Amino acid sequence: MEYKDYYSILGVSEDASQEEIRKAYRRLARKYHPDVNPNNKEAESRFKEINEAYEVLRDPEKRNKYDRLGANWNRYQQAGDQGGFDWSQWASQAQAAGGRGRARTHTAYGDMDDLFGQGGFSDFFQFIFGGGGPMRGATRQEMPFAREGRDVEHPVQITLEEAYNGTTRILQVGERRLEVKIPPGVKEGSRVRVASAGEPGRGGEAGDLYLIISVQDHPTFEREGDDLQMELPVDLYTLVLGGETIVETMNGRVSLTIPPETRGGQTFRLRGKGMPALRNPSQHGDLYVTVRAAIPQNLNSEEKRLFRQLAEMRE
Question: Hey, what domains does the chain have and what are their CATH numbers?
Answer without folding.
Answer: 6-136 (1.10.287.110), 152-215 (2.60.260.20), 222-314 (2.60.260.20)
